[in-house]
Amino acid sequence: MSKLQESQSPGLTAISRTVQFACQMSTESHVSKFQRIALTFLSALLLNFAATADAGGQLRFIATQQKKPLPGTVRFKNGLQLSGMCSRESLLNPDVPGTPLELRMVDQRARQIFSSNRQADVPVVDQAQWPVLTFNIPQKSVSHSTLRQGFPQLGAFDENGIANGIIRLPDGEEEKISVGIVSVNELYAEVRSLTHRWNYAIAFDAIPSDKLVSILQHEPEFRTNAYRRLEMIRMLIRGKRIVEAGVVLQSMQQDFPELKAELAENQQSIREELARQIATSLEKRSLAGQHRTAAQYARVYPQENLTPETLVRVGQLTQRYDDIDRRLASIRLALPELAGSLDDAMLRTQAQQAARNVIDHLDADTIDRCAAYELIADVADIPPANKLAMAMSGWLMGAEYSIQNLPEALSLFEGRLLVIDFLTTDDDEVDERRSLVDRLIKLEGLSANRVAAIVRNVSSPLPIAVSVDAESAIGRFSIPATEDSAGAIGFVPPEYHESRQYPLVIAFPGEFATPENYLAWWQSQAEQSGTIIVVPQLSEDGSIAYGASAAEHTRFLNFLRKLKLGLRIDDDRVFVAGHGIGGEIAMDMVTSHPDLFAGVVSICGLGRKHLQWTVWNAVDVPWYVVVGDGQGGWYERAGIILTKLMKRSDDSGQFCDAMIVKYLNRGPERYFEEADDVFAWMAVHRRDRFPEKIYADILRSTDLSWSWVQLESVPTQFTKLDAPSQPGDDGFHPARLKARRTSKYFAVEAAPGKACSVLLSPEMPDFDIQQPYIVSKGSKRVTVNYDPDIRVLLEQVRLTGDRSRLWFMKIDLSD
């Protein structure tokens, strides 16, 4: 090489000697042409420079510009939007070499959120998404001890921004620790240990609302600089801490009365934003089924000094409840009159009894079932019996199933009782169930579709007792453990009632939480969103230990069935979650029974080694995984699992809807600040009832149900996990299940055991009840026509408690 041209990029001069040394080596006679090229490009690679030829054929080094993180917002395929410093990354843990990945990262300083690049859109760059103003809080360190590996348990921050606690060390000893908030902005707060060498950050909304203003008052210029305090108000508004902004504003009105004009604008902004937040809260309560609370507060909502948008929102909510009250009053008045006007005495008695049943259970969540009746309620030439039939059948099955034949509608009420009787039979009552189905089939107008509609709307057949202390409080319940079923404690949201379905979170506590205090982690957001929370106890002795055994899975599945038959649960919004070892349980459950869940949440759970085989079983299920990079061995244990979640599945070719949240310089904690984000994430997810492809590695004899494929058994050579295991155990040999469906066939291409079943439903996408279907297992094929079976439908509900995904046919296949 005769000449080296250096680019003008900063930093090149500092390393030019290294580049020149490589070039000089390449001119030595004993170095081959190939070696010269290799040395040149290796130097460029190591120094993050690119090599190219100029117009004269001479080699130039040009400093490459790695894309720096940019402030902005990323919209994910699941609908969530997150803001922060956005970038593309290739590793979850840059400190450990690993498989390069295509990742999208949003850095919010306190945490980094990763997803597959295929699950995220290109960021929208916006400088306003990164804080400009930061407020320093002076703190005094008392020592600088080395932070030993352990589990820090910190109390809440006090008015000085200090939190005290202990570190639980692996040897059982405890060590005192104190930390203090040293700076605050609208996105995060920097925290420094006052006793140890440890720094980290927390989300801005993790600072307790009753302490935030007191902490900010320690800012050096708070007392003396009015404009600094105005900046603080703007920061609080941008950070959605509106109540605290109002408190600071009031302090300014007292301390700086000469700034009345400047403060007036901020006061109006705070009032308007607070009104929006209250309106949003009322709308959320309404959507969560807390109609009494939403209606009461909407009707007494103050109207002065509000934006037109907020007035319209509150007005619409008030109008909605006024309309519902009017409709309820009208139907409650009309049904007894219609029933009393019937000439036939026996028919009149039956109709009056059914009308009382409807009136007793008619409410804001069931009123729309009577919509078809309301359309004809005032039509003069329609007989009373027809109107009554429309109201009753609609309430039983939904407006779309309303009928005008009164005897047929009354037979549906008898059918409803038979359905409840069927669902409450014991396993050994086979003859009783056969008799109940025979009676159902003989009833007038009882088709499979109508039975399905009754099943979806009927109240819980085996109700669980719920205790409520106050009118607007949560309701608590407990499920006693049995020999083959886990026990549990839990709560239902305020105003729980049987006429609507509720999302469910099954939450497994970690090593440092009792079931009782673990419920508190979920309570605030669960109340607002109308979510049922339950904490099961899988082990028979009450310990937190978990062996991932078949016995534990049997206890879990029986418990879940009992829960679904005892409470009104939305089967398409069931989430499994946990902290620490509870997160590992959640991961194991979702990879063993993915068709049961809408998503999985693991906080500080590091997984078990067998999940390396089974993690892609749940590629159709959304994942939300929280780890702290200070958690000992987090990447060594969880790295392979998390990497698979970010890659395309080898079998299905799909990318998992997974979000990995990594907290910097933090370890195995409770992460209370994640609760809001976890519930926001759950709100956008629903279960995939009917996946097109099913690929599974099976390690346990209890893992038999895979959506529309049911296995008869798993050969023992594949069931090593039936026995209790340790997290690091390996040497597993999974059984393989491969199945796929199209608009014309259902194919089980590989399955363990000699027999399996395929379940069919007309609710499957592209399912045509008019055409025959080919159903196959291996080389064996059968052609079937759609012929719904009430017995199959009810038996599947009885066995699983699932009333959202109903099966109408069962095709048995064997080798």
Kindly describe this structure.
36% of the residues lie in helices and 21% in strands. It is of the alpha+beta class and 815 residues long. Among the domains are: 5-63, no CATH class; 70-129; 347-457, no CATH class; 475-741, Alpha/Beta hydrolase fold, catalytic domain (Rossmann fold, 3-Layer(aba) Sandwich). The protein has a 14-stranded mixed beta sheet, sandwiched between helices. Strands 9, 10, 11, 12, 13 and 14 form a 6-stranded antiparallel beta sheet that branches. Strands 24-27-28-30-31 form a 5-stranded mixed beta sheet, with no helix packed on it. β30 (773-777) and β31 (780-784) form a beta hairpin. α9 crosses α12 (406-423). The chain starts with a strand and ends with a strand. Residues 1-66 have low confidence and may be disordered.
